[in-house]
Structures are given as C-alpha cells and as structure tokens.
Amino acid sequence: MTSQEIRQKFLDYFKSKDHLIVPSAPIVLKDDPTLMFSNSGMTQFKDYFLGYKDPKAPRIADTQKCLRVSGKHNDLDDVGRDTYHHTMFEMLGNWSFGDYFKKDAIAFAWELLTEVYGIPKENLYVTIFEGDASENLERDQDAYNFWKSYISEDRIINGNKKDNFWEMGESGPCGPCSEIHIDLRTPEEKAKVSGLELVNNDHPQVVEVWNLVFMEFNRKADGSLEKLPKQHVDTGMGFERLCMALQGKSSNYDTDVFTPLIAKVEEVSGKKYTGILENEKDIAIRVVVDHIRAVSFAIADGQLPSNGGAGYVIRRILRRGISYSYRFLDMKEPFLYKLVAVLQNQMGAFFPELEKQGKLVSEVIKSEEESFLKTIETGLIRVDKLIETTLNSNKEIKNVISSINQNIPAYDVLKKIQENLNVLKVNQPFLDGFKKIQENIESLNQPIQESFKKIQENINLANQPIREAFKKIQENLDSVKIKLPNTEVFELYDTYGFPDDLTRIIAEEKGLTIDEQGFEAEMQKQKQRSKKDSASKVYDWVVLEEKPETFVGYDQIEAETYITRYRKVENKDGEFYQVVLSNSPFYPEGGGQIGDKGVLENAVESFEVLETKKENGLIISLINGLPKDAGAVFYAKVNAAERKNSQANHSVTHLLHEALRDVLGTHVEQKGSYVGPDYLRFDFSHFSKMTEEELALIEEKVNAKIKENIALQEFRNIPIKEAIDKGAMALFGEKYGDSVRMIQFGSSKELCGGTHVKNTSEIGHFKINSESSVAAGIRRIEAISGDKSEEYFKGLEKQVVELSQLLKSKDVVRSIEKLIEENAALKSEVDALKKEKAKGEIGDWKGAYEQKGDKLLLVKKTSLDAGSVKDIVFQLKKEIPTSITIILSDADGKPMITVGVSDDLAGIYQAGALIKELAKEIQGGGGGNPGFATAGGKNLDGLENAYQKALNI
Hints:
Strand content: 15-25%
Number of domains: 6
Shape: globular
Distance between the termini: 77 Å
Subcellular location: Cytoplasm
Binding site for Zn(2+): 650, 654, 752, 756
Largest sheet: 9 strands, mixed
Structural class: alpha+beta
Cofactor: Zn(2+)
Number of helices: 29
CATH topology of the largest domain: BirA Bifunctional Protein, domain 2
GO molecular function: alanine-tRNA ligase activity; aminoacyl-tRNA deacylase activity; ATP binding; tRNA binding; zinc ion binding
CATH superfamily of the largest domain: Bira Bifunctional Protein, Domain 2
CATH class of the largest domain: Alpha Beta
CATH architecture of the largest domain: 2-Layer Sandwich
Family: Belongs to the class-II aminoacyl-tRNA synthetase family.
Oligomer: single chain
Number of strands: 36
C-alpha cells in the first residue's frame, strides 16, 4: 500500500462516518500568539475547543502539516539519529466537537487499524490514564471498559500523567488520552521480550501510532482544572509511522514517504544510503531529507527564512541540513534546492501550495545555501585564526616559562611573569598556578620580602610552595589538552552563524577541544537574556458576561461599549490589562495592518488603548489600568489620525499589488506586508531587481488609479467560492473561512479583513521610497502615501529652497555639480600632501626605536590617516627586525591604534593580543593577525593612557 493510498483510505473512512474532510491549515501560524507553528493536528481547531467559534461540523477529519522544533514539543535534536522523529510530519486526525466521545472514538480507531488497514490485533497494545492523586484525577475507567471489548486486558497498560494526560500548553483544554502502540518486531524478537515491557520505552520497533485525546478539562492559568461545558475528541496519528507499519519497514525513512528524496540525495552526492543508525553519512542523509520537507512547506506557506521569530527557526533547520551535508556528504555547493522538485512530484497533488510555489521555494533555498556556505567558508578562516591564536598563546607561555631561570629570586620570578602575562592571551589552567605564586608571595610580610631581596640564596628554600607550583606548571604544560576559549567559540556561533559542532570537529582535528562548560554557560546567558526580555505573566480571564463581541470598526471609529472580560498582564514594562469589549471599533492587528490605538473613557476615568490584537477569536485591547467599575459603560475612540493613514496605506497596497502584476507579470504574489500610519512595506515574488523605469511606471499607474476617485466596493461575508469566481486574489499561507470579505477598487479585487478608504482620492499621493531584496525571489517595496507623502514633498521643496539660498544660485543642480568637481580636485591635492608627509615620517621614525629587553619598541602619536599609517607600519616591521611598532593616531577626531610586530617576533608577541589591551583605553575594539592589528574607539581622550601603557610593553 503506497503512502498516497494510506492517506486517502484514512480520509475516506472518516468521510463514511459522517466527518467533514477539511484541508490542512498552514504550517506557519499567524493569528496565535502562543505558537509559531502548527505542532499538532488540533491547532487549527483551538477556537472550537475553547468555545470562541462554532465548528464547521460536529465531526471533522483531516491530515495536518505539523512542525515540532521549538518550545515544549521539540524533536529537532533527535532527527536523523533515530528512525522515527521528524521536524515536519503529517498528523492524521479525527475530531468530535461535543458529538461522540470515548466509546465511538475507540471503536473508529480499532476498526480502521484492524479491518481497513489489516493490522494484526496481536501486534497492538493500548494505554489508558492511571489517574493522578495530586490533581484528584481518577483512573480512566471508561476507556478501559471500552477497550477490553476489543483487546485482551493484559494488553491494556496503565499510563502516568506524563504519557497519558494530554495538554495543549500551560493552559487551555486538556484531558486523559489513550495511546495505541504497535509492535513491529519479528516473531523471534517477540518471543524473547514481551511488547508490554517496551511500550513507551523508546524502542524503535515498538512505537505509538495513534493517540486518542478525550478533552474534558480546561487548565486555568493558576494551574487548576475545571470541567469543560462539552466533551470533545481530538486524535492524532503519525502518518509516517503508520506508513512504516503498513509497508512492513523498520524505519520511517525506508517508506515511500522518504525513499524518492533519499534516491535524489544519493544521485547528487554520490553517497549510498545504508540505513545504519550510527553511521554519520546515513544520519546526514536522514537529516537532509527530513529538513527539506520542513523548510519547503514553511516557505510554501509564506514563511521565509529570517533572523527572528518563525523565520529564524526555519533558517536554523535549513542551516542544520546544510551543515550535515557539508561535513558528512562532502557537499560544498548548493544542492538541497534540487530536492524540491522531488517533493513536488510526491506531494504536490495533495498539497497544491507546494506545487504552485515550487519555483519560489527552490530559489529561496538555493539562495540560503549559497549564503550559508559562504558563512561556513568565512567561519573556517575564523576558526583557523582562533586555533592559531590559541596555539601561539600557549607557545608564548612556554617561552616565558622557559626563559625564567628558576635560580633567580622568587620576587623577580613573579615580576617576570607579570611583565609577560599582559601580552599573553592566557586561557589555560596555568593561570591558576601563576595566581598561586602571587598569593604566596603577597602573603609574606614586608620584612621577610626585604630580606629575600638581600639574600637571594635563601628565597628558594623559604618559598618552596611557589617553586612546587611553578614546577607543576612546567610538568603539565604539554599534557593538558588546550581549549579554545568559550567566548570566541560562542561568538562564532551566535554572531557569525557558524555551527559549534563544526568548530568542535575542526578543533579536535588540530588536537584541541572547546570549553564545553563555558560554551554552555554562554548559551544559557543568552537564553536568560532573551527570556528576560520577552517574559510576561498572563492571568486568567475574569469573565463579566458571556457575550459574543461585535467589531464595528469598519463603519465607525467610536462606539459606546462595556467590558465583557478582562485579565491582568505583567511584563518588564509594568502592569497592564487586556480587555474584550461588547462593541469594539478597534481594528485588531492582522493582514499586515497594525492594530488600532486610542482611548477607552467615560465621565469618571480614561485609559489609553496601547494596542489591539486578536487571540483565539477575541478582539483584545491592551489598556494601561483597570477601571474602578469594570462593568461601567465606556466610549471607545480610535486614534483617528493614525487610522486614516493606516487605511490609506492599506488600500494603496492593493493598488500596488495590481500594478506590479500588470508591469512585471502575473507571477507576482504578495508574500508579506506591513501597513501602519507611517509607511507601508510590501513583499512580493519576483526574481530580479526592478529597474528605475519599472518603479516609475508602478508609481505612475498607482497614482493614476488614485486620481480616478474609485469608490470602495465591499463584500462582507460572501462565500469564498463566490469571491474567487468574481476574481478575488487569495494569498497562500493565509487561512480563510467559508465566508470571506472582499475589497474591490475597480479592477483590483482581494480577500481582505483590513480597514480601507471609502474612495481612492483619500489616499493622496503614492511615493516609493525603496526597492530591495528580502530573499531569493522575494523583493520588497517601501512606500508612503497620504499625510506622509505630503510631508515628504514639502520637505523636499524646503530643502531645494535652502540649497538655493546657500549656493546663491537658482540652478541648484549645476551649482552642486561644480562643487563636486572642485572637491575632487582638492582631494587629489590633499592626498598628494599626505603621501609627502608620510615619507617624511618614515625617515624620522626609523631612528626613534628604543631597545626594550628582547625587542626594539617604537611608540608614536600622529595625525596621519589610517591608510598612511598602515602603509608605514607594514614598511617598518619589514625593515626593522625584532621590532614592535605602535602608532596612535587622531584622524579627524577619531582615535585609532595600529600595532605591527616584525616576523621574527611573531612567535613571542602577538599584535592582536597587544591591540586588545590597548584598545580598552579608547573604549574600542579591533583585531588582526600576529603580525598586524588595528583598533578604533570612541574615547579620544584615552589615547594618552594608551600611549603610556604602550611605552611599558
């Protein structure tokens, strides 16, 4: 039985049981603040379970695209290392909303598995909830009684709260669940160990195949449970695992869900898949074929890779796949994008978004691959430099220690060590030894120290612990495995996106390791910072009236209203309250348009409405306090000026979309937008940079439509099929109901829930500010209209007048051109003078080196520019052997330090280490290599301190 047949049989079965078959919701969620992705089949039905919306039917079934890579449900780290975990998977499910409950749910599951799919009954086990005394929850006796009519009682297993009590999250609908497990082992293996012992014990051949959740409780924010008014059924069956069971395979990756993708990887990479669990090559192939599914479906649903939020998660998944293919499949060129066509052929018929968006998906993935492969190449160079720096630091430690004669006084030993430590990048345990030396010497009283200076022969005897510590350092210097410093390894990972496991592998090849504990500590610090920034506490709703809210914001921006429910919210900014109003004129954020702000007031008090969002079907406004009388009548007033500009920008995005399709072609589709009172941002599919001519034509077309004074035609609550038949554009990645709202301005027709102008003349002038690339195949236009465009043109006019007055010319353009020509001529003269000055400085500086110990040292201040200083330092370090050159410059008020170390000293002194120490004085940073380094800073006054410190090197 093929995977396509397995999926279809499931849907056909439940259709025969009077279930409405609905399509999968997008994998990326846009209207649920608690989740980034659909992580289970029930996600799109949350509003039904919570009672915020009426279900389309009392019985529903579907197959849902799911992604589990963040939060509580996170399978990312397991993917590739076993046979059954995946980032993206399909969840087959059937639901009952207040209709049938445990008896029918169990009967349907048993009949489908054993009679339709033909799974032998003796291969199945079931679990039930055993109860939990701490929550006063009793054993699920009903489920036990229903199951024993189908399966022997010795195959019904009691399960704890962890495995058999399903919860949506920290709060929300929940209830006991009953899992169905299948034993796929051979008869010989079954004879050795009973399947009862392997259920829920992570055995790859005894796995959960279906979970039946009986929703009968609601978990409140305070942790307590309350009974739901209606009982519901929520089931989920892993499609890939079901295919493994029905196709007689021992791994999900051996089913026809994955084998076409694996075959393509084998073809492109030249590596053969053997299915061995611990083999790194096979792990890499499993990672690649899993991750390409997750990334492809996410992009097809409208989520592009980015540096934040859901986009960051998608980028992270993709980069993990690229990293594995780079390391273990030796793929140094983009190739994951070639798998998209295979995925289209496999699943495009059932998931049309993948078929339609295939070219875009492929282009985006290829671009991301090219970018990350460059990151890897750059990162490899950085890692090599880090390893070189670390090895040189430890080499310098050896040189310092070996240069110290142990027969000299301990006081001088300490002095010698301290002189050298300030130029060493010490990151080894040896530093503890040096500190021990210092502690021992400082513990001696002053008279004894004076005696030590006079009687050097007695120092070694009197200070034996110091000598022993020093000797220990020498003995262990070669035996300790050198660690790369955790801060630099974390910087590679966090700032430059270089995988830490790749750094680990390269370090081990060079005989080094990374500071695992230190790296993990840096990771935890970052997580704590992120958690602190986003932390908030949301209390339970206080329900004043169970009344459906009414949004009146399409027709009015003020309304008499009262609060139907409220809850407290605490975050880093303070204490606020979220309120739901009986009649709300506030538009909730959605469709790219930001939520309305305004005031909620009456004769007694007034509150600022800070934002408005939609959550679980409720329009929620955030206010800066709680009314004394929450049940009082209020007047809700939208900020009229902001709403006016927002709706002008929203309406013009529709005109822009139509103009782009007219000028560039019908391949243009909206991929994202921001609509606010200040400006608009419009992302769209297009594979090349727009020309100036195209942009000018777009502006011309949009402004022509505005001048036509086209009246808004609004169609509320019309059937979606009727809207599509009228020519309305629907956006991929958006979730539409059976009834929709259509907005029409002449020939522009789109499904849209936002607010709009009544006539295009209200938009004013449309002006494009920029056009840029967001990702491969995605362009972005930023523009203004209405009041903002008027302000823009007034500003330009004012600037032209001011320039004309300054230049004392009416022909501003010609006057500026003349200034540019004169400036270029003067710059050439200045450059020539700088070169002459630099030549003079070289001659003077060559004779200014002073002997400092084992080196010649030059420390100079100058006003030369950075380029001239660099040229001089390179020349001096080449011509003056055993030298260190340090130049401190004040170039146009910006402090700069340059350090050069001659090649014969590069093994002892490091320019990079020296520059880091000196840069502290000018509040700056920089870097370089052992022979040359530079640093810029913010504190010009600190140059003198840096100068004095440099003299003492």
